[in-house]
Amino acid sequence: MEKLCAALNPQFPCREAAITTLGELIGDCNEAYPPAIYLFGHSGTGKTALTKSFLQQCQKQQNVHIAQLNAIECYSTKIMIENVLDALGMQQQTAENMLEFVEQLRSWHERDPRCGFLIAIDNAERLRDMDANVLPVLLRLQQLTSLNLCVLLLSQLPFEKYYNKTGLSEIITLHLGQYNKAETLRILSTDFDQVRQQLLLLQQQQQDAQRLAICEKALTPDFYSNYLNLFLSVFYKACRDVPELRLTARKCFGIYMDPVLDGSVECTDVSRLWRHIAGPLRAALTQIYMRIEKPLGETEIEDQSVRKLAQSLELPYYGKYLLIAAFLASHNSAKQDKRLFVKNHGKQRKRMQTVNARAKNAEKMSTTLGPKSFSIDRLLAIFYAILDEKVGLTCNLLSQISTLVHLKLLGFVSGEQNIMDGSAKLQCTVGLEFVLYIGKVVGFNVRQYLCDFM
């Protein structure tokens, strides 16, 4: 177990506790494995990568056979069984159903009873859509086969969502929570050596000795850490998906370094560097999850890319209005809802405080500061206020909210498991230009309902 933890801890910072727990449970094939382990958490928290590396280390250091599969790819029971048997080294064996699958594994016990088996299934919530006996058999596979076998199920849902009328066996659950800001900074800082090497290689290819000397001198761990602090001050509230943050941070770092390499700004002048990078960071914030490959400084290309993406996004009619309502809820204060969406809201007195508050510059506008969280009730209230026709609150309408979350157009801030009771908090992850094009498609003027433009 100590060797496993020592090999994995450097690869997965801030996951030492989860690695230790897995090591205690399945770190030694000479000890009895638990029947099943359920790992759950948000996307981007390292469930799949951690499990994959852990199983590979177990196979490398111990007498263990492993199988890793994705339930999305295994859309039928037979395909899932064949993938598991192939991964375990039983290519010549076939099985049509779970009974034959259990018999095939049971025959292994007679050949090598001391061998360990680890089977990991990603997106395990898809198992609920398979035959009714698949999930119960997987949870009791160790008991049915008499093997030292453990099934690891990975999902974004809590295990309570799997319960049915017939019931399921008890399972050990392990939650991988989202990284806080300090942990995210620590993880992103591990890319420093690779980023530095790429920048130095780029300067060597350009054959510019002066820029190469400045790059070697200025690019230090403290300099990169200062950049990541500025980067997370813009992105952390809108996105906590570490792979997306890592990709965007690398893309923006070249722009951050340009004035330093040109010699126009000192590497210690943080305020001028912030003024230089603030605009590109906000532009990148509107494109997170979209993977638009273009220079961040070219506004015309940016508009064309966002317009093309918005036009190609085939959302349902009410789904477009829900996305617009989510953007308005994220970028307007809840105190302004009555004035914006109620016809007879009464007169508003103009006081000097109100006038001065509205005299804000572009850096303080809500559309550039980033999205705020909102509740489901407020989202639906704004949706009904901006929709001309009357439509009932049906399951199809509520399911479109889940679709927007699945497409990364909306993101959960808290209460993901409590959508129906109204305690869930969401935020809109798309930018103003994207929503403006969506509004043009349905004939809705988004700017008319934004406080920044009134």
Indicate the topology:
Blueprint: H1 2-8, H2 16-26, E1 36-40, H3 47-61, E2 64-70, H4 77-87, H5 98-111, E3 116-122, H6 134-139, H7 141-145, E4 148-155, E5 172-175, H8 181-189, H9 192-206, H10 209-218, H11 221-235, H12 242-262, H13 270-285, H14 299-312, H15 317-331, H16 337-341, H17 352-358, H18 366-369, E6 374-375, H19 376-386, H20 395-406, E7 410-414, E8 425-428, H21 432-442
Parallel strand pairs: 1-4, 1-5, 2-3, 3-4
Antiparallel strand pairs: 6-8, 7-8
Helix pairs in contact: 1-2, 8-11, 9-10, 11-12, 11-13, 12-13, 14-21, 15-19, 15-20, 15-21
Overall 3D form: flat
State mean pLDDT (0 to 100 scale).
82
Summarize the helix and strand pattern as letters: HHEHEHHEHHEEHHHHHHHHHHHEHHEEH
Query: What can be said about the biggest beta sheet?
Result: 5 strands, parallel
Low-confidence stretches: 294-302, 359-363
- Beta-strand percent range: 5-15%
Span of the ends, CA to CA: 62 Å
Query: From the structure provided, what is the oligomeric state, counting identical versus distinct chains?
Result: single chain
**Helix/strand/pairing class, anyone?**
alpha/beta
> How many strand elements?
8
What helical percentage do the residues reach?
Answer: 40-55%
Rounded radius of gyration (Å): 26 Å
Tally of alpha and pi helices: 21
The main sheet orders its strands as 2-3-4-1-5
